[in-house]
Amino acid sequence: MRPEALDAIALGRMPAEPDATDAELRRWQDTIQRIPEPVSLQEARALSASFGPDDCFGLAWALLHKIETCGMQVVVDEPEPSDEWRHRLWRRWQNQLGIP
Question: Cα separation of 46 and 70, whole Å?
């Protein structure tokens, strides 16, 4: 894996909006932006574990779009609906394949 992806993975899970500090948000934003596209499938799968409990002021969407640059199915088995962001990745891939 490339260092930029490893930097994002090292941050752990995104903080919840009410708990996020300005410094954490800037760190996440800068780190996501530094990851070169497209990401590899290995990087995408590892990054998919970084989602937190909410959209983290839009940063979860930025991460989701970065993950989708790999162009392959990142989440193979349907996750629990409570795992909102991984479920969203899975569902978007199903929609792309035309699976209802």
Answer: 12
